[in-house]
Design a protein that fits this description.
This protein has 504 residues and is of the alpha/beta class. The protein folds into three domains: 13-117 and 301-308, Nucleotidyltransferase, domain 5 (2-Layer Sandwich), CATH 3.30.420; 135-296, Exopolyphosphatase. Domain 2 (Nucleotidyltransferase, domain 5, 2-Layer Sandwich), CATH 3.30.420.150; 315-449, Hypothetical protein af1432 (Orthogonal Bundle), CATH 1.10.3210. It contains 20 helices and 13 strands. Strand 6 and strand 7 (151-157) form a beta hairpin. The longest helix has 20 residues, at 426-445.
């Protein structure tokens, strides 16, 4: 969760780790003249999607392979500052029934936290990487990425993704499901096309109406398809539908992945090649694609550019919060009052108890959306807000970050739900409790919803004890605040914090 703030230093090292369903990738870059210049790449085929069992767990062999890979990645990251490493998990990790059972040993092996992102956030990062890897253009672009467990489709203009979708089919999952044992038949192929078509039909018309002028494919699967099509003479350059039809017929003629001997197709790619081809063929037909070019950049490069943007003040999470507050008609004036008060409390308490820049950011976001639940009902509006934050599409936020924000906002009034805090990854729990405590006090002090000046506030915290000092004369004029603070002692105790009120 920790991210650098302020301008990134010249020659700073940064790294992105992409925990895909078929392969794990890592890129290490050096920040030079505003650009992350890649200086090292690592890739290992882990195929964790093939090890995902019916209970939502990764089978021991793939689990061990993944952890060994992450340990090797971790060794390479030894010289990179923790604030400049970001590791992201995708579809297979999204499907885990108990993610922490894998994430805890995985984070130990890597030496850094691992975020799980939604399909649409994955799509945004893919588009960011692809766009930065292509020449500047004013044309709309469609980017398709066939991963091991999911496929992402994004239409965007320049650096801005406009439409993004993710479907739960990828080269590994589709090959295992539709072509078990590597056997490829016409009947199985048609069955795969029909099921994939159902998923595409949910957004195909909207995409065709939005339109695009350029089409790119970003993934090892699409690069392999292009290499085979060109190598066989099915296409002079890139991928088109006749080339995909030709590949399909060759696969059906071979009848089994063991019998594939195609130029440009690596041995490790053979078992998952039919799944990738059937996905792309179906996408070409339903999206009316004419031509696609494969590119060498993907989500990992997008992660690097996202880190650079965050460090330089262009954080998509801020835009997500603003859009959400606007959508649910949050009271901007009250949100600003609560935010200002929370920041005052944070400054008063000092940086030892809470990391200043990071806590300030989360307090700001939480204050801006803490009342969005009022759009549903006043009763239990904090619960409604928590639900919205857990389930909304919030570009820029990982799944853990959305849960963290939901937990803070949901606990800003009434009795906090200890179970919600305990459901967070252990590394986030203490931070969440302390940020929540400051947000609660800010909301309490701004209960009148007026822009009256607050008195001098002193706040001291050590361990789990928090001491709030307010002028006695001011408290005498605000008896409701005294009552609220007396109640707050018991409520903060639910978070393991002891509040003392001192009349200065």
């Amino acid at each position: 969760m920790s991210r650098p703030h302020g301008e990134m230093r010249e020659d700073e090292l940064l790294a992105a780790v992409d925990l895909g369903s078929n392969s794990f990738h890592m890129v290490v870059a050096r920040y030079e003249h505003g650009v992350p210049r890649i200086i090292d790449r690592l890739r290992e085929t882990t195929r964790i999607a093939a090890g995902l069992d019916a209970n939502g767990s990764i089978e021991p062999a793939q689990r061990l392979r993944a952890l060994d890979c992450l340990a090797r990645f971790g060794q390479r990251l030894a010289g990179v500052s923790p604030g400049y490493v970001r590791a992201v998990g995708t579809n297979t990790l999204r499907q885990l029934a108990h993610p922490q059972e894998f994430l805890r040993p995985a984070e130990r092996a890597l030496g850094h936290p691992i975020e799980i992102v939604s399909g649409r956030e994955e799509a945004r990062l893919i588009f960011l990487g692809v766009t930065h890897g292509l020449p500047a253009s004013r044309q709309r672009r469609l980017v398709v990425d066939i991963g091991g467990g999911s496929t992402e489709f994004i239409i965007g203009h320049q650096l801005e993704p406009l439409h993004a979708e993710s479907i739960q089919v990828g080269c590994v999952a589709s090959s295992l499901r539709f072509f078990p044992g590597g056997k490829v038949t016409r009947k199985r192929w048609q069955h795969a096309r029909e099921e994939i078509a159902v998923l595409l039909q949910q957004f195909a018309m909207d995409f065709r109406e939005a339109g695009w002028q350029e089409c790119y494919g970003a993934s090892g699967t699409i690069k392999s398809i292009e290499a085979v099509a060109v190598g066989l003479g099915l296409s002079e350059h890139g991928i088109n539908l006749p080339a995909l039809v030709g590949l399909r017929e060759l696969l059906l003629e071979a009848g089994h992945t063991d019998k594939l001997h195609l130029p440009g197709l690596s041995e490790e790619r053979m078992p998952v090649f039919p799944g990738g081809v059937v996905i792309l063929e179906t996408a070409f037909e339903h999206l009316a694609l004419e031509h696609m070019l494969a590119v060498d950049v993907a989500m990992r490069e997008g992660i690097l550019w996202d880190m650079v943007g965050r460090a330089e003040g262009s954080d998509p999470r801020r835009a997500s919060i603003q859009a959400l507050a606007k959508r649910y008609g949050a009271d901007e004036a009250q949100a600003a009052r609560v935010d200002s008060t929370a920041q005052t409390l944070l400054q008063a308490i000092g940086g030892d108890w809470l990391p200043g820049d990071e806590a300030a950011e989360w307090l700001d976001w939480a204050a801006r959306v803490h009342e969005i639940g009022l759009a549903i009902a006043h009763s239990q509006h904090h619960r409604h807000a928590g639900y919205i934050l857990r389930h909304a599409d919030l570009p820029g936020f990982s799944r853990d970050e959305q849960q963290l924000l939901a937990c803070i906002v949901e606990a800003h009034r009434r009795k906090p739900d200890k179970a919600a805090f305990n459901a967070l990854p252990p590394r986030l729990r203490g931070f969440a409790r302390r940020v929540t405590a400051l947000l609660r006090l800010a909301v309490l002090l701004r209960r009148t919803r007026r822009s009256e000046p607050l008195p001098p506030i002193r706040l001291h915290a050590q361990g789990e004890r928090v001491q709030l000092s307010l002028p006695a004369s001011w408290l005498e004029q605000h008896p409701l605040t005294i009552t609220d603070l007396d109640l707050e002692r018991g409520l903060l105790a639910e978070l393991g914090l002891k509040l003392d009120l001192e009349r200065a």
